[in-house]
């Protein structure tokens, strides 16, 4: 059977609006599994250990954001070389998120300097030019492309995900499928409601500071 997975979402343990359980339940209603990839923390994952969620982080490296996905709540270094080494040593998957988005800490041409497992080639919040450059880089490096929502609000879930042929949810099998280029990116785009919710949440966060 085919399962659908969004490898890049955020909760209120970093800069997202909702709880890990709310994000999971929203995705479940849409028939999608998620990875929780809060910025530089695995606290959110520890709240949903009993649920079928992929543990991860979006790590703030010296060059920009890189996502790591593991079968356990990771505690990776922030140095990008150390992060890639940590991923290899622990059988994790590591990929640059929105790498050419100059407004959201993409690592840019550093995608060519390290041995990643994949590249996020469609980020629902990145512009067309940035996503296009990411696709070109994936082709040059012969790496699988991933489509992710980068959701910070529940309504953005479903705007991008990946299709994988598996009989059941199993983190190790999912990560292995990514490495073997057996995942297919599905590009949907943000709904009008999601776009509005993102703007409102951005304003609310600004007012809280």
UniProtKB/TrEMBL annotation:
Residues annotated as coiled-coil are: none
Can you give the residue ranges of the Polymerase/histidinol phosphatase N-terminal domain?
Answer: 5-63
Query: Record's InterPro entries?
Result: PHP_dom (IPR004013), PHP_domain (IPR052018), Pol/His_phosphatase_N (IPR003141), Pol/histidinol_Pase-like (IPR016195)
One short Pfam name that applies is PHP_C
What are the protein's GO molecular function terms?
5'-3' DNA exonuclease activity; 5'-3' RNA exonuclease activity
PANTHER family attached to this UniProt entry: EXONUCLEASE, POLYMERASE_HISTIDINOL PHOSPHATASE N-TERMINAL DOMAIN-CONTAINING PROTEIN
Protein name from the UniProt record: Polymerase/histidinol phosphatase N-terminal domain-containing protein
Task: State the taxonomy lineage.
Answer: Archaea, Thermoproteota, Thermoprotei, Sulfolobales, Sulfolobaceae
């Amino acid at each position: 059977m085919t399962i659908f997975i969004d490898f890049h979402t955020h909760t209120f343990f970093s800069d997202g609006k909702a709880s890990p359980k709310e994000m999971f339940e929203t995705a479940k209603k849409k028939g999608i599994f998620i990875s929780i990839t809060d910025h530089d923390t695995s606290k959110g994952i520890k709240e949903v250990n009993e649920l079928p969620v992929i543990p991860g982080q979006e790590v703030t490296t010296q060059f920009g954001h890189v996502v790591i996905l593991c079968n356990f709540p990771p505690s990776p270094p922030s140095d990008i070389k150390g992060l890639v080494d940590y991923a290899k040593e622990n059988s994790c998957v590591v990929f640059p998120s929105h790498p050419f988005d100059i407004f959201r800490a993409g690592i840019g041409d550093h995608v060519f300097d390290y041995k990643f497992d994949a590249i996020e080639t469609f980020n629902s919040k990145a512009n067309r030019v940035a996503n296009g450059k990411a696709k070109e880089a994936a082709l040059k490096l012969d790496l699988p492309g991933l489509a992710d929502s980068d959701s910070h609000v529940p309504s953005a879930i479903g705007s991008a995900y990946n299709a994988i042929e598996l009989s059941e949810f199993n983190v190790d099998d999912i990560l292995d499928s990514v490495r073997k280029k057996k995942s297919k990116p599905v590009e949907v785009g943000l709904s009008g409601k999601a776009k509005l919710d993102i703007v409102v949440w951005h304003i609310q966060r600004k007012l809280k500071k």
